[in-house]
Amino acid sequence: MMLALPTETLQTILALLSPADANRLRAVCRRFDACVCAPAFAALNLARTCETFPEDDDQHVSRHRFTTTDTNASAYSPSPRDMAWFDPRWPDTYKAAHARLFLADSPFTRTEIAWSRAGIVGHLPSQICALSQTLQSLCLDHNSLSGKIPDEICTLGSLRCLNLSNNAFSGSIPRNIGNLSELRYLFLEENNLSGTLPTSMGNLAHLEKLVANKNELSGSIPAELGCLSKLHTLNLSHNCLSGLIPTEIGGLANLRFCKLACNQLYGPLPSEIGHLVKLQGFWANQNSLSGEIPKNIGTLVNLWQINLSRNKFTGRVPCEIKNFAFLNYLNLSENDDLIKVVDEVVQENERCWKFLREQGFVLSSQPTASIGVSTL
What span, in angstroms and rounded, lies between the C-alpha atoms of 347 and 356? Predict the structure, then answer.
């Protein structure tokens, strides 16, 4: 009997069902399938089954701060309808309507979506582009999202914080990610991302944190990253990056923490590293870096941790390392061709000399016949 009704009437009746029930009817017959998949029906169905959002009070709303990766912060917990938005089985018409009606227009998510540790499963829909005019923070970390990061995410021109870490995203980082001109914080760590780092990242002039460790990224570190003059944290460790460390790294004037460990980088440690006078931590262990450690590394007077172990450095350790006044960790072990004799002036820095001595180094005034290598 219902199948004989005019399409508009049939849609009005079906719209009273929950979105889940309405979509189950698609399998009944082609007429129901056509009704449910119509763009106008999706908007009508969602509007008529709209759930009440929580009040904007301390009990329900906890604002996500741009300066932290606190994964417990969220504007509100995602509803079942929000969760379905990530389900690849949900029709695109519903995803577009949901993004337009409840995400872009909601006063609670006008500038942010912070659904960390929310148990979300599925894919990040391309309909995220509906939020392009307003969204400033998108935090979906520590969920079970998979598939590719949609290219449409690059249309979020107001975005300042993007946190997709600790999921199962695969494929490449969108090559136009440099279009996110307002981005300050980019967290992509602990996914299954592959491919190269997009050169367009050099356009992220306001970027302060770039964290993409524990993926399967390959290729070289783009020289364009040297344009990120506001960057203070760079973590690309535990990937498959190869090639030289670009000399342009010296342009990162505000860099404080640099982690390049556990890759396949080779060649010399560029002398331009001496320009990073604000650097506090530098980790490049477990690569194939070679040549001498540059003398101007001694200009890094704020350095408190440095790990160059398990590389192929040669020559003598520069005595300028005695300038590391705040040092609490130094590891040069497992560089087989590094001469294990250091200048006596190094012992002026007690902490520095302590670490070197524990790793088998001796002073130039000491006999060298029994010098050996010990590792941490």
Answer: 10
Decide if 78 contacts 120 (C-beta within 8 A). yes
Q: How many CB atoms lie within 10 A of CB 158?
A: 16
Q: CA-CA distance, 93 to 349, in Å (whole number)?
A: 66
pLDDT tens figures, 328-351: 999 999 999 999 999 999 999 999
Helices (H) and strands (E) in the chain, counts: 7, 22
Q: Return the sign of the alpha-carbon dihedral for residues 119, 125, 128, 130.
A: negative
Residue pair 156/128 in contact by the 8 Å Cβ criterion? yes
> Are the C-beta atoms of residues 284 and 307 closer than 8 Å to each other?
yes
Q: Are 82 and 125 in contact (CB under 8 A)?
A: no
62-99 pLDDT tens trace = 323 333 333 333 346 787 778 878 888 777 877 787 77
Structure tokens at 53: 């959002």
Q: Are 134 and 112 in contact (CB under 8 A)?
A: no
Asked whether the predicted pLDDT for residue 55 surpasses 90, the reply is: no
> Is residue 200 scored above 50 in pLDDT?
yes
Write the single-letter amino acid at 159.
L
